[in-house]
Amino acid sequence: MTPNKIYPDFAERDVSILLSAIGAYLLGSISSAVLVSQLLRLPDPRVEGSGNPGATNVLRLGGKFPAALTLIGDVAKGIVPVVAASILTGDSTAVAAAALMAFLGHLYPVYFRFKGGKGVATALGAYLGLSVPIFVGAGLTWLAVALISRYSSLASLLAMLSAPVCAWFFLHDISIASATGIIFVFVLIRHRTNIQRLVSGQESRIKLKKV
């Protein structure tokens, strides 16, 4: 009967979503900041500087080259699982799950006692894998806010807020819009101290070098 025919397809789809999510989380858990710092014998970014294992802190601790490597790694681990899920499953829910779990892997890496970074670079990588319009919308929002306000944290928050708006406007996909919305909530939580400093006027600004 019809139920017997539908069930295997439904079960197969569930397995695809689950495997996409698990694979993305494991890849996202690889901390580019920690690995680059260990490779180049830099201080541990989890305990030095701001304590945040991300490209900005690596820049502070080691300079431009290690920071660039960290940024590339963080973006790549957002792109790769999303593109892989898209190619292997062709299912928007599996792709959305991969984007969300790669991001959460960066925040709560299983290999590093669940102490991760703020996830903006990995989220942007995932957005590039999801849809170019989402990535461009978030990227242009970040750039515009950063240039006008010179607050990196504010730019990051508004860029992540723009992603679910762009996802719904361009794709009309509830799974992807929901995943990007959840990512924004977690970024908001991760930036709570930055928000407090923004409100109090104590947040540091981006310093632009004169040419």
Short description:
The protein is mainly α and 211 residues long.
How would you characterize this protein structure?
It is built from ten helices and no strands. With 211 residues, it is an all-alpha fold. The chain has one domain (2-200). The model is unreliable at 1-8 (pLDDT under 50). 46% of the residues are buried. Helix 5 packs antiparallel against helix 6 (120-130).
Shape: globular
- Overall mean confidence score, pLDDT: 90
Estimated radius of gyration? 18 Å
Give the N-to-C terminal Cα separation.
74 Å
Parts with pLDDT < 50 across at least 5 consecutive residues:
1-8
Main β sheet profile:
none
**Beta-strand segment tally:** 0
User: What order do the helices and strands follow?
Assistant: HHHHHHHHHH
- Class based on secondary structure composition and strand pairing: mainly alpha
Classify the helix fraction into a percent range: over 70%
| Domain tally | 1
Number of helices: 10
Strand percentage: under 5%
SSE diagram, text form:
Blueprint: H1 2-28, H2 32-39, H3 55-62, H4 64-89, H5 92-107, H6 120-130, H7 132-149, H8 152-171, H9 174-190, H10 192-200
Helix pairs in contact: 1-4, 1-5, 2-4, 3-4, 4-5, 4-6, 5-6, 5-9, 6-7, 6-9, 7-8, 8-9
Features:
globular; 211 residues; 76% helix; mainly alpha
